[in-house]
């Protein structure tokens, strides 16, 4: 007995295009009606609110960054006023009048091998400090011991995922510099001692800050 194969009918190009268009339209509807309201709080149609999806989106947090250093690059292009009058600063925040003199604090800690620690400077937005830190090993102030360091800032109220990095070094024996806080929060150092012996870390901060916090050895 001979069996004859029946050819499978192929969809016409028109039907194929209609199927693709239908699939795209369905995906767009799902995106507009469900995904955007639920994931991002974007509800163009109002359906998300009606379905109770708009409340599912995680609240977005925003932070304001302060730029006290920028804005005066074009100062020489500013129109000079009448003779004897000062030229106005486009960004006058470069000068900050303070009621008290700058504070100075020093912290010193012994960091055992394979241990880590953090020291943070609590600062308000726009305030400035000068800092210096150094490493000494085995009680020898002239040693050439180095540690890993990550100088960064974060706002604890934003959780552990939010931080900005100022400088990272795989091996460093110390550092000096200044910082104008771009936002209110904690700005400071994370150190990891990868040596096979303890090292002493000394930090000195001068300027306008609220506190110098030692987070201990971990």
Would you write up a description of this structure?
There is one protein chain. This protein is of the alpha+beta class and about 220 residues long. It folds into two domains: about 45 residues, no CATH class; about 120 residues, Jelly Rolls, CATH 2.60.120. About 15% of the residues lie in helices and about 35% in strands. It contains two helices and nine strands. The protein has a five-stranded antiparallel beta sheet with strand order 5-4-7-2-9, with no helix packed on it. The termini are far apart. The relative contact order is 0.19.
Structure in a nutshell:
The protein is α+β, with helices and mostly antiparallel strands.
In terms of topology, how is this protein built?
Blueprint: H1 13-40, H2 47-51, E1 103-111, E2 116-123, E3 128-137, E4 147-154, E5 164-172, E6 174-180, E7 185-192, E8 199-207, E9 211-217
Percent of residues in beta strands?
25-35%
Q: What is the 3D shape?
A: extended
- The CATH C-level class name of the largest domain: Mainly Beta
Mean pLDDT: 86
Summarize the amount of helix as a percent range. Answer: 10-25%
Uncertain residue ranges: none
Q: Count of helices?
A: 2
Spatial sequence of strands, sheet with the most strands: 5-4-7-2-9
> What would the CATH topology of the largest domain be?
Jelly Rolls
């Amino acid at each position: 007995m001979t069996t004859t194969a029946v050819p499978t009918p192929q969809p016409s190009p028109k039907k194929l295009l209609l199927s693709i268009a239908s699939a795209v339209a369905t995906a767009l509807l799902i995106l507009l009606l469900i995904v955007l309201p639920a994931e991002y709080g974007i509800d163009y149609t109002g359906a998300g609110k009606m379905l109770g999806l708009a409340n599912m989106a995680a609240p977005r947090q925003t932070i304001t960054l302060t730029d006290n250093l920028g804005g005066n690059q074009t100062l020489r292009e500013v129109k000079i006023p009448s003779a004897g009058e000062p030229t106005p600063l486009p960004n006058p925040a470069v000068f900050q009048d303070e009621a008290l003199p700058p504070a100075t604090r020093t912290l010193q800690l012994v960091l055992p091998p394979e241990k880590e620690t953090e020291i943070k400077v609590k600062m308000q937005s726009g305030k400035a400090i000068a800092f210096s830190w150094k490493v000494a090993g085995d009680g020898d102030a002239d040693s050439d011991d180095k540690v890993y360091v990550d100088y960064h800032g974060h706002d604890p109220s934003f959780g552990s995922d939010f931080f900005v990095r100022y400088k990272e070094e795989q091996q460093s024996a110390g550092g000096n510099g200044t910082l104008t806080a771009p936002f209110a929060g904690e700005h400071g150092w994370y150190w990891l001692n990868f040596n096979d012996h303890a090292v002493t870390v000394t930090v000195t901060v001068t300027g306008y800050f609220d506190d110098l916090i030692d987070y201990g050895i971990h």
